[in-house]
Design brief:
Chain lengths: 290, 663
């Protein structure tokens, strides 16, 4: 409102860092980013390429049930009906990849759109904020239970639950960043230049918001994997005989004394995947804020 | 102003000042480098005698603050002292241990930084913060309380006994800065370092803070190192001056000598490039081409050589050493002896920057200019009884906050410069925003070419955009960081037709840039270059009037002159009108044909610039003009009596200062 009488000599120098541009990718070149990327890549490739190098399919029953690790060529042994645990873990990864690839883009687009609208229009903003709070108010598992009442438990219900839980993550981020951009002078400059409101959103605000939204993808995927695991553990997620990490953790917990790997292998993979994604997310976030 | 008058009445026991020739602080050959060997300071010498006010002037990156931080050994992490000595009262601080330094900081050396809000703890009362400073240096709790009250009285705070219980947010910017001074002098320091203490404060407040510095010197005998980019401030209060450039000392000497008869080409040019409020405006300000060097860009020779009109061959290879004579003055320059041509050198237009500009644009204007033979004086913007209220004007239809703009009537015309001047919060920026349609009037009418923003159709709005354009103060914030100069400048242009019949490149040339800048991003430009891009954008659709909101206040002094000249040139070249919103009276004096003085949302005085500045009719205008530092080359003396031009009734004269104190 008031011109701040800043008769100051603010830095009249050329910034060396090219702000905003290319900085996100540079985050992946840091040690943290590289570590996270490597972990994530190994797990993803393992899941995708599993059919090419495994002797057993995830549903294929071999003779011995509940075989321990390495017994009969089964890396992590077999489950109670003789299926290869390693194959099923990799299949579980594959399933998680599919869930994430389908659900996260949907929630990212919806969340960003809602966030942008809410940053621009005060009335829509209140509505969107209310929606975000409502969605965030439910713990993921409760949300999953609610969804599985409406939709039969299975892939679809997990998908919907993941999407609903991650929409506010993207939405709030987009809203926050967009609101900060809107108050900046370059938006005023665009208005004075006669640029239309829609064009300002598409050409100015969206490009400056998108990085912060991208940064949220890694944590959202991590959240999706955990949610799938949690729902499957309580039996409202992926249904047997399909392999999922959560469902295997639950099922294997009865056989900890005979084949501990039944439960521990999927648990370890879940843990490592979440760690890898967190590293990637942190590295990107650091690059964004730098 | 009232509180200043109280200083004189405060009955503090005044201690005898003991002038002494022995140096209190002697910095010799100070070198500060970054970890990778880049030198930030390259052999800085500085001498402060007891009780002396020494000004340190320089542009951004010159190393002023680094020198000060070196003295208290609070350099940023990346920087290290790599050479030289810092003798404080005979002790070398460059190698002092932590305990010595702790005792020194806030004890023998007090420091005041630029930003008084962030330097105070918002959760502690000001009294508690002063007491903290006292108790850290051994004052007992009970005495600390009464001493805090004394100190607040000393720096001119009303009702100090009550004020100790207040929190920083209850104080205005100027008051907070006084509190900072109270903390800095709490333990009777022998040296007070003030780093841009008045930057960002309004001129009237600035004048009061400067008076306070003089008063502290007189009453406490404290030596002061005053760091500033504002030559007027130096002129006002400093006994001696050190001019820094590119991490080296260019010139030292008494304030009178350095500012009155400078000898170093840089000092000469710097002083000539500052617009003066007390001088008849000249056609063009002297301009130092280029911009100050960045750290690490320093060549092997004299840092100023690339911009120096007198540079010789040896300047590029050999660094001239600072040669200080018996009178304590000296320059670091190969150009020794008296060179009267230095000062009388005619002001050349900024040729190196913009070779084809004039030719291109004159031609363009003459063919595109249209039939209006004399465009000057055609009213473009008419404001009548404009009121703007922010805040909760919505729900219940009643404003709870005072109006930011309260009944302003103005007319701005083509080909002329209207200066809208006032202090922060006076509402001048709100008027500017209302003119370009960024802020809706609460009541009253803003007409652009006879059309009003609130009633205009889409087509009319577009036409209005073509008529008035805006230049922002913060040029970096006003540009999308992801856009290139090419996109930024052409954003207002819808149909590929630039204003004044120009092409994109000739538009850039008109503002002193060239095609090499087309693909740069805003953060790859210097502040001066960015402001030129901002002007090019404003000119792109050929407006009749440009509203410039503090267009030069963020620029270095030498770069500021370039942009001021450019603004005048653009007015002459394209016949555009300029509404110059500024707090800097000297800039308005230099550029404006007419000025309007705003105060609390109203225009208190309006008229031809020469008349308003020479014979202000309103008390407020007189006070404002009287507060501008450095109107006469007589350092250290004029704040007290320089206000005779027009004292506002609320602020009686009789400010204590050097002339009143027996000494």
């Amino acid at each position: 409102m008031s011109a701040i009488a800043a008769g100051t000599t603010t830095t009249d120098k050329v910034a060396t860092r090219s702000g905003g541009r290319r900085t996100l990718l540079s985050g992946l070149r840091t040690p943290r980013g590289l570590a996270g990327l490597t972990i994530t890549a190994v797990i993803v490739l393992g899941g995708l390429l599993a059919p090419l190098f495994l002797r057993w399919g995830p549903l294929q029953q071999s003779g011995d049930t509940l075989g321990t690790a390495f017994a009969g060529g089964h890396l992590f042994g077999t489950d109670e009906v003789g299926r290869d645990i390693f194959a099923r873990v990799l299949a579980g990864i594959r399933l998680d990849i599919v869930l994430a690839v389908v659900a996260i883009p949907v929630s990212a687009v919806v969340g960003t759109a809602l966030g942008l609208v809410s940053a621009i229009s005060p009335r829509a903003g209140n509505g969107a904020q209310w929606l975000f709070n409502l969605l965030l108010g439910f713990p993921g598992v409760v949300m999953g239970i609610a969804v599985s009442i409406a939709v039969a438990p299975g892939e679809l219900s997990v998908l919907v639950a993941i999407a609903l839980c991650t929409v506010p993550v993207f939405g709030r981020q987009a809203r926050l960043t967009a609101a900060a951009q809107i108050s900046r002078d370059y938006v005023s400059a665009a208005v004075v230049a006669g640029t239309s409101g829609r064009r300002i959103i598409v050409r100015h605000i969206l490009p400056n918001v998108i990085d912060s939204v991208i940064v949220r993808i890694a944590p959202a995927v991590s959240q999706a994997i955990q949610l799938e695991g949690a729902l499957s553990v309580v039996g409202l997620g992926i249904q047997p005989p399909r392999a999922s990490l959560g469902q295997m953790i639950a099922a294997g917990s009865q056989y900890l004394s005979t084949n501990a790997m039944y439960s521990l292998a999927p648990l370890a993979v879940l843990f490592i995947a979440v760690c890898g994604l967190s590293l990637v997310g942190d590295a990107l976030n650091e690059a964004l804020l730098a | 102003m009232r509180e200043i008058a109280r200083i004189g009445e405060a009955a503090d026991p005044r201690r005898e000042r003991q002038p002494d020739d022995q140096a209190l602080l002697e910095v010799k050959g100070l070198e500060v480098s970054l970890g990778d060997g880049v030198k930030l300071l390259d052999g800085v010498d500085l001498r402060i005698a007891r009780g002396e006010v020494v000004g340190m002037v320089g542009e951004s990156g010159a190393g002023k603050s680094l020198t000060a931080l070196s003295v208290i050994r609070m350099l940023p992490h990346a920087a290290r002292i790599t050479g030289g000595r810092i003798l404080f009262d005979g002790r070398d601080l460059a190698s002092a241990g932590k305990a010595t330094l702790r005792q020194l900081r806030g004890g023998q050396v007090g420091v005041v930084f630029q930003d008084p809000l962030s330097a105070l703890n918002p959760l502690m009362t000001v009294g508690a913060q002063i007491e903290e400073a006292l108790r850290l240096h051994g004052t007992a709790r009970r005495q600390a309380r009464s001493r805090a009250v004394e100190l607040l009285a000393l720096v001119g705070i009303h009702d100090p006994a009550d004020a100790v219980h207040d929190y920083p947010h209850e104080f205005s910017g100027g008051m907070r800065q006084r509190v900072m001074f109270a903390i800095a002098v709490a333990n009777n320091p022998r040296l007070l370092i003030a780093d841009e203490p008045t930057t960002g404060l309004d001129v009237t407040i600035q004048a009061a803070v400067l008076r306070l510095i003089l008063k502290l010197r007189e009453e406490l005998g404290t030596a002061v190192l005053l760091i500033t980019h504002d030559i007027g401030v130096v002129e006002e209060v400093c006994d001696r001056v050190t001019v820094l450039y590119g991490g080296r000392v260019m010139e030292v000497g008494s304030g009178k000598q350095v500012l009155g008869t400078p000898r170093h080409p840089y000092t000469v040019e710097l002083i000539r490039s500052v617009p003066r409020i007390d001088a008849e405006p000249v056609n063009q300000l002297a301009v130092i081409p280029g911009a100050p060097p960045l750290p690490g860009e320093l060549a092997s020779g004299c840092p100023f050589a690339p911009r120096c009109a007198f540079a010789m061959e040896r300047c590029d290879t050999n660094v001239p050493q600072l040669a200080v004579g018996a009178d304590g003055s000296g320059i670091a320059c190969w150009l020794t002896g008296d060179h009267p041509e230095l000062r009388s050198r005619p002001i050349e237009p900024d040729v190196a920057q913009t070779p084809p500009r004039t030719a291109v644009s004159r031609a363009a204007v003459s063919c595109a200019g249209g039939g209006d033979g004399d465009p000057a004086g055609e009213a473009i913007v008419e404001i009548s009884d404009l009121r703007i209220c922010y805040g909760s004007a919505g729900r219940r239809g009643r404003a709870t906050t005072p109006a930011a703009v309260d009944g302003v009537t103005l007319t701005a015309s083509t080909g002329r410069v209207l200066g809208l001047i006032g202090e922060s919060g006076s509402g001048k920026t709100s008027v500017a925003k209302a003119i370009v349609g960024l802020v809706k009037p609460t009541s009253g009418i803003v007409r652009v070419n006879g059309l009003s923003w609130t009633e205009a159709t889409a087509a009319e709005t577009a036409a209005m955009r073509h008529t008035v354009q805006l230049v922002f103060q913060d040029s970096l914030a006003a540009m999308d960081p992801r856009w290139r100069v090419r996109q930024i400048v052409s954003e207002p242009v819808r149909d590929g037709r630039y204003g004044f019949g120009l092409e994109l490149v000739s538009l850039l040339e008109a503002v002193g840039l060239d095609r090499r800048f087309l693909d740069r991003y805003p953060d790859e430009l210097s502040g001066g270059q960015r402001q030129r891009v901002g002007l090019a954008r404003a000119l792109a659709i050929g407006p009749r009037l440009i509203v410039a909101d503090e267009p030069v206040s963020a620029l270095d002094v030498s770069v500021q002159a370039q942009v001021i000249n450019l603004l005048a040139e653009l007015r002459d070249m394209f016949g555009v009108g300029l509404l110059l919103v500024t707090h800097d009276l000297a800039v308005a004096r230099h550029l404006a044909d007419e000025v309007a003085v705003m105060h609390h949302g109203r225009i208190v005085e309006q008229g031809p610039a020469a008349r308003v500045f020479q014979e202000p009719r309103e008390a407020y205008t007189a006070e404002l003009i009287g507060s501008v530092p450095g109107r006469r080359m007589c350092p250290g003396k004029q704040l007290d009596n320089g206000q005779s031009a027009g004292q506002p009734p609320t602020a009686p004269a009789g400010i204590p200062g050097s002339t009143e104190v027996p000494g």
